[in-house]
Amino acid sequence: MEITKQQYSNCSKTSYLISNTHIKKQSGKLIIPNNAKPAIVFNDDNSDENFHEYEFLGNVKGTTFVLVKWTDYNSEAFYLVSRTTGTVDTLIGQPVFAGNMTDFACINNPGTDEKQQVQVCELKSGTVKTRVYLNGTADTFFTDIACINRNSVLAKDNTGKYWKLNFIIAAE
């Protein structure tokens, strides 16, 4: 459902990343300490055939998670890493959190042979649970998310239109 720019703008993003000066990448290794196991290590690869690198984006406010970005030549992924359990959950894009710091959503920046999706998740009992994947349409390319509610996401597309994406999850 299309909405106005005002409706989209009234729903501001939640600031959720907190810097952590104790986590730094050294010599191509990003080390994330966790309470349950040995540290989680992300290793850059600077070779031509397997190039990829990791970037620490910050602690997720009010949680035991940190956000890490993985980038290669043509794509990117985001990892929510639990500093309690050591679990690493892969997200399709950078998350945007609701004010409750439980619900969040992200959109992918698909490659040429992929379809765009919106991944809607929640943090539940210290774990990441994907609630639903919403498939994009061929004629609309979402570029940004402003607001996440329990059963809707407000998004902006590449033509400057604004949308409310409603969904119902039957199992809930």
Overall residue-averaged pLDDT value: 90
**Amount of helix:** under 10%
- Kindly name the structural category: mainly beta
Poorly predicted ranges (pLDDT <50, ≥5 residues)? Answer: none
Keywords, separated by commas or semicolons:
172 residues; mainly beta; five-stranded antiparallel β-sheet; four-stranded antiparallel β-sheet; 16 strands
SSE inventory with pairings:
Layout: E1 2-3, H1 5-10, E2 17-18, E3 25-26, E4 29-32, E5 40-43, E6 52-60, E7 65-72, E8 76-82, E9 88-91, E10 96-97, E11 103-107, E12 117-124, E13 127-135, E14 142-149, E15 152-157, E16 162-166
Antiparallel strand pairs: 1-16, 2-6, 3-4, 4-5, 6-7, 7-8, 8-9, 10-11, 11-12, 12-13, 14-15, 15-16
Question: Could you characterize the architecture of this molecule?
Answer:
The chain has 172 residues and is mainly beta. The protein has one helix spanning 5-10; strands spanning 2-3, 17-18, 25-26, 29-32, 40-43, 52-60, 65-72, 76-82, 88-91, 96-97, 103-107, 117-124, 127-135, 142-149, 152-157, 162-166. The protein folds into two domains: 1-13 and 101-172, no CATH class; 17-94, no CATH class. It is built from one helix and 16 strands. The chain has a five-stranded antiparallel beta sheet, with no helix packed on it. It has a four-stranded antiparallel beta sheet with strand order 1-16-15-14. Strand 15 and strand 16 (162-166) form a beta hairpin. The longest helix has 6 residues, at 5-10.
